[in-house]
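> run fold Pirin family protein
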Amino acid sequence: MSNLEPLPAEQDLPADTGTAPCAELLDGRDVPLGRHTVVRRTLPNKTRRTVGAWCFLDHFGPEDVTAGPGMRVPPHPHIGLQTVSWLFDGEIQHRDSLGSDVLVRPGQLNIMTSGHGIAHSEDSPAGKPPLLHGLQLWVALPEEARRQPPRFEHLADLPVAEVPGLRMTVAVGSLGGATSPARVHSDLVGAELAVATRTPAEIAVDPAFEHAVVLTHGSARVEGTDVTGGALLYLGAGRSSLRVEGDGRLFLLGGVPFEEDLVMWWNFVARTHEEIVAARDEWEAARAGLGSTPERFGTVPGGQEPLPAPALPTTRLLPRPRFRA
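> ok
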């Protein structure tokens, strides 16, 4: 998914190491996604930039798309990240410059690794279901992986673990003894939690990870804190278990705190201002048909007009840590 803000801004952070358990509700903000969809963005947040290597989280829907086109995100580029697409309702057609053309449905995983550069589009297909509801997440790639060739994986069958009152579908990483086959490049976990219990269910988690949850359906409490819709509950690190209760669904994300400073702008995750400028220039040159063939980002099938890159800010883009000391 693309960040379609016309003036995407850098995010600053407060002084906080995020290395101890906590329960901090982080409000999201509404962001238009093209002309037809509004998403609730909770990462990056004004008080948190990352949770592990998770660096971006959009929650879209539930939206009735029977009278409209649904999702329409034309071809756009990415560098330095993995996109993780997760649906609760509806269908999305993914096409990318590797030649992938895949329909993702609820409970299935699309994970696209941009490496040094890729382009893709995401659209509601013809004959789409009436509701569209899901998450789009990004994972920042560590230094040793961010210049590798791109790849795409579609996983239709994901592992499930259960404890009384709680069902866990593991999208990435491991949880409850179940391990996803999705390939990632840092220690991560991402899982949908379906909870139906008034007595707290307990999940064993890695104390080296920081964790957060977003509520997607119904109501839930995590570690005694009510999770509100449109917010991210940040839980810090150092926990060996999480207590979850309620009648709803959540998405859990976590990972070892990501210590590399990032420059995040538009659809790019980099380390320097110069890398962002070069990627933008190459995308715009390829989009305009200037110079040589668009080798870095390739061409997305489907005949849609690619998205233009926004104008760069007038100030230099600076690397940011996950917190400010």
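Residues 223 and 243 are 5 Å apart (CA to CA).
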